[in-house]
Specification:
Number of domains of chain B: 1
Radius of gyration of chain A: 30 Å
Helix content of chain B: 55-70%
Number of helices of chain A: 27
Shape of chain A: globular
CATH superfamily of the largest domain in chain A: von Willebrand factor, type A domain
CATH superfamily of chain B: Magnesium chelatase subunit I, C-Terminal domain
Strand content of chain A: 15-25%
Shape of chain B: globular
Oligomer: heterodimer
CATH topology of the largest domain in chain A: Rossmann fold
Number of strands of chain A: 18
CATH architecture of chain B: Orthogonal Bundle
Helix content of chain A: 40-55%
Number of helices of chain B: 5
Number of domains of chain A: 4
Largest sheet of chain B: none
Chain lengths: 633, 107
């Protein structure tokens, strides 16, 4: 590699494949009204490469926003030097200033704080940044386009933020080996001599630039007819867009596509292509309906270019086409549902069956829990960040403090003090460079990623073995765990039977060993439910004290058929009554209980429902855990 | 320290020589194909694994004093590149199977 100061960027035109992504980015270059492009793809597919290559063909700078950016760095803050030397309050430029007239680039956009992301999106959409902080109130222009990338697997992005991206494209990496080989060869060539490589593609780069220049020239004369507008509105209405942003985006993008093609009038293909780019990520997931993908063959987002759908301005035909579009759309793989990748999931089920029982797509009962008390939209965010009460976590802002020994935000304190320095130095004779008074003190506001703990308490008594339910129980547990695993929460595992109550795995993030654990669960004859409840209560009381910011769930998997009392020699008390009584008195703040009934059918001996009621827990049977059974309701 | 000084020196010289040689190392299209096939076989999704495997194989060839990448090079670096990228099935430890790589490369 040559030791250039300016790192050599891979040329845009040398990027193999990714046609849709490239087209979307070209649209953003040509039409500055397109304010946001989101690129989704698995890691290592070239999202970053393609975004970086834009600089060369657009002649604009790509302003990269690092993940650990602070509000000050991003939006600008008080100019310390001016404040201290002149006592004046003015703004020191931030990244958003530099983004004016350029591209703003956020890698892994879903990992940014929501609050910050939301501010950035607002500013980008308004074309202005408003700063109101530290005695500072100002506003500046910021005409930019936000390019965000995100990984398909680990990703959740708030639908509201998603909606504000005009375009969302999925990076399609080549399926066959030919494409991958070509990519490898090009990479080899690029690394050997970046300059020679750039030279090789110079002509193609120029062609792209010319195309952009031409498109910019004619875009103003592209006419959007009433028919075009009607068609766009119709498509958006058909796929059930909530807001109007989708319509506007489709309109902007289809106009740009026509301009890129050198035309001043729209074709139906333009509109169709624009709809694919602009609407797929805005589609709502209908409530209470989880599409089971195993049954249906997934179809590419909306329809691809080669699909037989043609748009004809005839109402009857239109209705028919729309129907086809809906049917297509219904088969869209549901994204962001926190499921592990499907490819391996389907393949893996077979060899799990024998010992652990069938795994299935489990409902997310923890989300359901949270959804009951808060809005369904909010509970996802709850799994993001929350303010930290301790001195750990990320420093996200500052506030005035009068604490004696605060978690001092040094930068903010100095900034607060800076405008008064001249006056203070005039007033008192001091050899301190910066005079800080009590009222300047600022403390840090910190945020920690909120996480949850799930403690599974599993009844491994004989009553389960006899009814051959253990396999099903294991399958259910594994299915639930798979769902949680994706979210990097803490999972613990406890069993109870007449042999004793065993904490097999105290809550931990390294959950790999659970699979093995489940395979060899120790079993005993009888069920000491009361003792288990007492143990859980004690354990969780200590645990919640240690992990204050965690949300704790205890998942009790049992058939409720308690047959050992707290005191094993006690023959007077009815063990079931005792357990139910204990459950009623159970009081561990900060812990939510969930009872999963491991009994298959409702029988006389069945007590777990009552147990759930006494614990104020939600109650599920094994069958209810299945996502597909939920769909049927 | 003194005891291993000789080995260390030797290793350092090898590395320096390999760095020089690396510029001349070539990889045939046939082996590029093999790299891609291995990647596909192990379910790699992006191109990072392919690219790294190719680079590592080249480096290994240079380290062993050759200017042409062989299948053996890919075999040697395969586990280094692939093992941490294997798709983990939840709650199970996945270990890299050297034999699988051998079969894949036709050894």
């Amino acid at each position: 590699m040559s030791g250039l100061l300016k790192p050599a960027h891979y040329p845009f035109s040398a990027i193999y494949g990714m046609e849709q992504t490239k087209k979307a980015l070209l649209c953003a270059v040509v039409n500055p009204q397109i304010k946001g492009v989101l690129i989704k793809g698995t890691s290592g597919t070239g999202k970053t490469v393609v975004a970086r290559s834009l600089g060369e063909i657009s002649g604009k700078e790509i302003i990269n926003v690092p993940l650990n950016v602070t509000d000050e760095q991003l939006f600008g803050c008080l100019d310390l030097e001016v404040a201290i030397t002149e006592g004046k309050i003015c703004l020191e430029e931030g990244l958003m200033n530099r983004a004016d007239g350029n591209f703003l680039y956020m890698d892994d956009v879903n990992l940014f704080e929501q609050r910050m992301l939301s501010s950035v999106m607002d500013s980008v959409l308004m074309g202005r940044v408003k700063v109101e902080r530290e005695n500072l109130s100002t506003e500046y222009k910021c005409n930019t386009t936000l390019i965000g990338t995100m990984n398909t697997h680990d990703s959740y992005l708030n639908p509201g933020i998603m909606d504000r991206f005009d375009i969302c494209v999925n990076v399609d990496y080549p399926d066959g080996y030919e494409g991958r080989e070509e990519i490898l060869r090009r990479d080899l060539e690029f690394n050997e001599d970046p300059d020679a490589f750039a030279e090789k593609y110079a002509d193609q780069e120029k062609a792209v630039k010319d195309r952009i220049a031409k498109a910019k020239e004619i875009i103003r004369s592209v006419k959007l007819t009433d028919d075009d507008a009607l068609l766009i509105a119709n498509i958006c209405a058909t796929v059930d867009m909530g807001g109007l942003r989708g319509d506007v985006s489709v309109m902007k993008v289809s106009v740009t596509l026509a301009a890129l093609d050198g035309r001043t009038s729209l074709t139906e293909d333009d509109i169709q292509e624009a709809a694919v780019m602009c609407l797929a990520h805005r589609r709502k997931v209908l409530k209470g309906r989880r599409t089971d993908l195993k049954k249906k063959t997934p179809v590419p987002i909306l329809s691809d270019e080669n699909s037989p759908i043609t748009w004809i301005h005839n109402d009857d035909r239109l209705a028919q086409e729309n129907k086809a579009l809906i049917e297509d759309a219904e088969n869209i793989p549901q994204e962001d549902d926190g499921q592990p990748h499907r490819k391996w999931k389907v393949a893996d089920v077979d060899d799990v069956i024998s010992k652990i029982g069938e795994t299935f797509e489990a409902i997310d009962l923890f989300e359901k829990e949270a959804g009951k008390t808060r809005g369904a939209a909010e509970n996802r965010g709850k799994r993001g960040f929350q303010q930290s009460a301790t001195r750990s976590g990320r420093y996200v802002g500052s506030r005035v403090t009068d604490e004696k020994n605060p978690d001092l935000a040094f930068d903010a304190t100095v900034r607060a003090a800076s405008p008064y320095q001249r006056r203070r130095h005039e007033a008192e004779d001091s050899d301190m460079a910066v005079l800080i008074k009590k009222q300047d003190m600022r403390e840090k506001v910190r945020e920690v990623r909120s996480s949850s703990t799930f403690l599974f308490a599993v009844d491994t008594s004989g009553s389960l073995i006899i009814r051959n339910q253990m396999m099903a129980v294991k399958g259910a547990i594994l299915s639930l765990l798979k769902q949680q695993y994706v979210k990097k929460d803490r999972v613990g595992f406890m069993t109870f039977n007449s042999e004793g109550i065993k904490m097999l795995l105290p809550p931990t993030r390294s959950v790999e060993c659970i699979y093995k654990l489940l395979d060899n669960l120790p079993v005993g004859k009888r069920t000491p439910l009361s003792a288990a409840l007492v143990y859980l209560s004690d354990y969780m009381k200590v645990y919640t004290k240690k992990h204050k910011s965690e949300k704790c769930y205890v998942i009790l998997v049992t058939d409720g058929n308690a047959n050992i009392c707290l005191d094993p020699d006690d023959t007077e008390t009815d063990p079931v009554e005792e357990a139910l009584g204990l459950a009623k008195k159970m009081d561990v703040p900060g812990v939510k209980w969930i009872v999963i009934d491991s009994e298959k059918k409702f029988t006389e001996l069945h007590h777990s429902k009552e147990l759930a009621k006494n614990l104020k827990a939600s109650y599920y049977t094994l069958d209810e855990l299945r996502a597909d059974s939920w769909e049927q309701q | 320290m003194a005891k291993y000084q000789k080995d260390t020196d030797e290793l350092r010289n090898n590395i320096i020589a390999a760095r020089e040689l690396l510029k001349k190392v070539t990889i045939s299209d046939l082996l590029v194909h093999d790299v891609v096939m291995v990647s596909i076989h192990f379910g790699m999704e992006g191109h990072r694994a392919d690219i790294t495997m190719m680079k590592a194989a080249k480096a290994n060839a240079a380290f062993e004093g050759r200017t042409e990448v062989t299948k053996e090079d890919i075999r040697k670096v395969g586990s280094l590149v692939l093992s941490h990228r294997l798709k983990k099935r939840a709650f199970e430890e996945v270990t890299f199977d050297e034999k699988e790589l051998d079969v894949c490369l036709g050894f």
